[in-house]
Design the sequence.
């Protein structure tokens, strides 16, 4: 076998020989290929990610584990993380997406937490094939989440030709655990038993990490279909119940799920993070079909498997728990003091490697200070002419793919099971009622178009929007998770674009004083040399003060004042409306990050102390579409009477459609206007009175533009499959 | 009074159902699918989920589990009140304890949504629920299109077995309010002491979750069990 057969370069091979002092055998080379792949080693992104802020008062454990963990209440930890399954979902959308959900759920379970929510962030092209992919992906997400009984409570979707051959399927999962049930992969001790739990190992997914997820696509990519795994949510549920029961009974010394690179990464990463070695007898691994070689057993990505580390005295009980659920549990080896991964097949040694070679010694790209500093530089871009305001523009934006209602997607997901969903996917964020432990707010966002021209502004903008979304309901952010999706890192432009995106996330998170507790990087989202827009999917978990009665997101009451709360900018760059009305995407506006924290804090405190009748973060489609979404919740018996101060028609367009950071739309009693204005202006926010809530199903602007509820809703509620009139 | 919540390996609404019964002040006991004895129960619920993964046909394998033989005996010999929810409905039709079958939704998609229902027939097992009453509850299923052979529908209505129907918010029946392609918009069926519905009453226990009409339906059922227990079974 050659280095290229396992996705390694000649230079990497030389390094392996130098480390080992000998040539690796084929199995050993395969292990290096898997763990030194982009997907497992983060060789091109780790130095950038290390610049993210990870510390915060609520952080229990940050990056490095299977998921980040924050403390929600004295008695409850929340584990959460976003992960991508982009490449498999293009090759086989239903199973690619289903196993994406299964995989991130096992990451949460591996922290000892019970999954309580899933969120999906999806990006597709706009052609017919993309709509078929969308159909398959949504089916796959539902297939796994619905069956395993975890609600898909919120999500995010976006469309652009840039994703045509590289759709993005990012899934965020959240779990809860009692602090005393904390579990991880870093607590194994020498002399303990390694138990492989779950599915029999088959030939599915071999080279998924090294060849599928760590390379660009080309016209031969369909031959990679056998590298995609198949999910079994029924077994996934049993695996979850066995694992969590063992956790609750205190039977496990350590725990690691089998994901990318299967047993290879599970055993190596568990050993390395615990500071132990492992001796594994591959002939003991239960197989789905006879005749798998040691190489195939180590590299298989068969789903629904967990690696448990159990002390001798708990072994019998662990096996009994598994048997009660009729899940296969097999002793496959032991932890040792050696610091080596030592593999045997039928008594004969077949591989012997130090785990730090596999996990820590992968060649990684470094990032020096000048490069990092340079990533914050604003690109020189031009913004084109802004079209004059006209009433049809709102109808066009309402019916555009990026601004449309997501209902045709989320109604295929069970979003109510576990009976905690107070706010579900029809809102800007999910609010879950956790009873005595309080409430959890969960928001996910990250418009790719914002980063198309200026990755830094897009990354920062996505962080600010999820935090503004939490603030709108009075939730306190505990941590964020970042899903970075970008092109081929070997190309200067793609690498720099990813770097700028991460720099933007880092600066905004630092400015807002919210830690990034974990995340995921998916690179090589590139086909035939064309990269996607760098896309940062940001998820935020927050503590909600009164989850049973979150602030409404409708139009409040008839007679209420409608306000735009903003931060000064009316730059409509990278807005949905700019794309729809001009066909261009210019740079997303940058904002002064120094004031972000105080503005977010001012909003959170206002909402907590003196909640408005309704409040919504300014979303895709700007002020116009935010009003449409508020109206959709109030229904056709409500209406709006509005006027904009600008006489200039281009200024009107900018005001009505811009998506600049840190803006909200509120409905408050008219007699509170002065008080609210005083309060928010004192914190550097600006208030614009737009008009008032009326009766009667019409929105009237400046006395001359008007829209009926029925017309707007007919555009906004169109399912995604109807794309013939798009772009 | 003890109500059994019958669980299969892939049941996933069992916890929510136990929580709902507990909220209603009833003692809920989880009955594992391997159980052979149910005669100490006052009633049983088969909750929602994907009993055995349901890769074959929803409920097909569960209907053949040991607990279902015991349940059949308890229904036939003691008129044990049984309520099937979602997958529980599918299992009860597969087991032949209710007439008809549930087919894949006509549009081919899983559907989760809020849905208004209308009570189409009264029953001693649900005192207080009157014909025409409206109930708002979530649905969440991929195979909920109720089907019964041509010619059998009229008998179903005449016997009062056609129990619940999907309607619009005003309680009007029409094709647009049918979320899955069920015949005659049927959402729930009853026969003797056995009743079942596709919607999830256990998810509609509080107004802050969207509706407390599930509370109303389950309370009525528990009242019915208390009355039956009082008259016939003690």
Sequence:
């Amino acid at each position: 076998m050659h280095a290229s057969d396992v996705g390694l370069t000649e230079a990497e091979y030389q390094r392996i020989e130098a480390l080992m002092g000998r040539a690796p055998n084929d199995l050993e080379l395969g292990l290096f290929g898997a763990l030194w792949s982009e997907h497992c080693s983060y060789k091109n992104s780790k130095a950038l990610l290390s610049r993210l802020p990870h510390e915060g008062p609520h952080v229990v454990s940050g990056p490095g584990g299977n998921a980040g963990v924050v403390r929600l209440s004295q008695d409850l930890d929340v584990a959460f993380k976003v992960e991508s399954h982009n490449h498999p979902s293009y090759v086989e959308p239903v199973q690619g997406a289903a196993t994406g959900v299964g995989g991130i759920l096992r990451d949460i379970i591996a922290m000892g937490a019970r999954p309580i929510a899933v969120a999906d962030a999806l990006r597709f092209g706009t052609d017919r094939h993309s709509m078929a992919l969308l159909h398959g992906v949504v089916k796959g997400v539902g297939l796994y989440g619905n069956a395993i009984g975890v609600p898909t409570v919120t999500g995010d979707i976006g469309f652009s030709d840039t994703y045509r051959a590289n759709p993005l399927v990012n899934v965020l999962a959240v779990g809860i655990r009692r602090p005393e049930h904390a579990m991880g992969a870093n607590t194994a001790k020498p002399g303990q038993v390694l138990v492989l739990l779950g599915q029999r190992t088959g030939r599915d997914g071999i080279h998924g990490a090294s060849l599928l997820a760590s390379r660009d696509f080309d016209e031969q990519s369909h031959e990679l279909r056998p590298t995609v795994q198949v999910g079994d949510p029924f077994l996934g549920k049993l695996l979850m119940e066995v694992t969590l029961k063992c956790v609750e009974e205190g039977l496990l010394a350590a725990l690691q799920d089998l994901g990318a690179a299967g047993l290879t990464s599970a055993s190596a990463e568990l050993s390395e993070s615990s500071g132990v070695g492992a001796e594994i007898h591959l002939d003991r691994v239960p197989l789905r079909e006879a005749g798998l070689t040691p190489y195939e057993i180590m590299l298989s990505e068969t789903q629904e498997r967990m690696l448990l580390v159990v002390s001798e005295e708990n072994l019998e009980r662990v096996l009994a728990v598994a048997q009660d659920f009729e899940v296969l549990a097999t002793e496959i080896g032991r932890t040792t003091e050696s610091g080596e991964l030592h593999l045997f097949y039928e008594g004969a040694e077949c591989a012997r490697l130090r785990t730090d070679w596999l996990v820590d010694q992968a060649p990684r790209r470094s990032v020096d200070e000048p490069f990092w500093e340079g990533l914050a530089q604003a690109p020189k871009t031009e913004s084109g002419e802004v079209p004059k305001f006209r009433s049809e523009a709102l109808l066009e934006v309402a019916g555009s793919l990026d601004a449309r209602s997501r209902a045709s997607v989320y109604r295929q997901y069970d979003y109510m099971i576990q009976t905690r969903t107070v706010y579900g996917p029809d809102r800007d964020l999910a609010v879950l009622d956790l009873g005595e432990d309080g409430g959890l707010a969960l928001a996910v966002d990250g418009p790719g178009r914002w980063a198309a021209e200026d990755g830094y502004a897009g990354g920062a903008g996505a962080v600010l929007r999820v935090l503004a979304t939490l603030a709108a309901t009075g939730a306190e952010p505990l941590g964020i998770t970042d899903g970075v999706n970008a092109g081929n890192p070997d190309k200067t432009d793609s690498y720099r674009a990813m770097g700028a995106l991460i720099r933007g996330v880092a600066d905004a998170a630092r400015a807002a004083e919210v830690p990034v507790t974990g995340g995921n990087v998916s690179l090589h989202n590139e086909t035939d040399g064309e990269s996607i827009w760098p896309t940062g999917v940001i998820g935020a978990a927050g503590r909600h003060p009164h989850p049973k009665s979150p602030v409404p997101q409708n139009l409040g009451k008839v007679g209420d004042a409608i306000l735009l709360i903003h931060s000064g900018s009316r730059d409509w760059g990278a807005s949905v409306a700019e794309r729809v009305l001009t066909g261009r995407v210019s740079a997303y506006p940058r904002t002064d990050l120094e004031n972000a924290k105080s503005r977010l804090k001012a909003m959170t405190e206002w909402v907590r102390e003196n909640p408005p009748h309704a409040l919504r973060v300014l979303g895709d489609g700007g002020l116009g579409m935010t009003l449409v979404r508020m109206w959709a919740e109030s229904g056709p018996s409500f209406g709006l009477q509005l006027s904009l101060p600008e006489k200039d028609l281009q200024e009107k367009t900018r005001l009505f459609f811009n998506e600049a950071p840190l803006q909200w739309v509120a409905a408050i009693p008219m007699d509170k206007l002065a008080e609210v204005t005083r309060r928010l202006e004192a914190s550097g926010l600006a208030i614009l009175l737009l008009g008032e809530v009326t009766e009667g199903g019409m929105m009237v602007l400046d006395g001359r533009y008007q829209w009926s509820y029925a017309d707007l809703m007919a555009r906004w509620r169109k399912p995604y499959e109807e794309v013939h009139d798009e772009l | 009074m003890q109500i059994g919540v019958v669980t299969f390996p892939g049941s996933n609404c069992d916890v929510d159902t136990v929580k709902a019964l507990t909220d209603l002040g009833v003692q809920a006991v989880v009955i594992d699918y391997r159980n052979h004895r149910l005669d100490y129960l006052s009633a049983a619920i088969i909750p929602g989920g994907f009993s055995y993964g349901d890769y074959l046909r929803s409920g097909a394998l569960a209907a053949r589990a040991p607990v279902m033989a015991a349940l059949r005996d308890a229904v036939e010999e003691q008129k044990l009140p049984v309520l099937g929810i979602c997958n529980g409905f599918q299992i009860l039709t597969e087991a032949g304890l209710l007439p008809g079958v549930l087919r894949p939704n006509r549009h081919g998609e899983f559907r989760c949504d809020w849905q208004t229902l209308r009570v189409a027939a009264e029953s001693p097992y649900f005192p207080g629920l009157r014909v025409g009453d409206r109930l708002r509850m979530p649905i969440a299923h991929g195979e909920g299109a109720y089907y019964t052979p041509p010619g059998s529908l009229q008998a179903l209505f005449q016997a009062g077995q056609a129990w619940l129907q999907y309607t619009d918010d005003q309680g009007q029946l029409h094709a647009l309010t049918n979320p899955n392609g069920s015949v005659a918009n049927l959402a729930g069926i009853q026969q003797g002491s056995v009743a079942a519905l596709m919607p999830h009453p256990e998810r509609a226990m509080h107004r802050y979750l969207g509706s407390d009409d599930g509370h109303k339906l389950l309370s009525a059922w528990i009242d019915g069990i208390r009355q039956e227990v009082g008259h016939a079974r003690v």
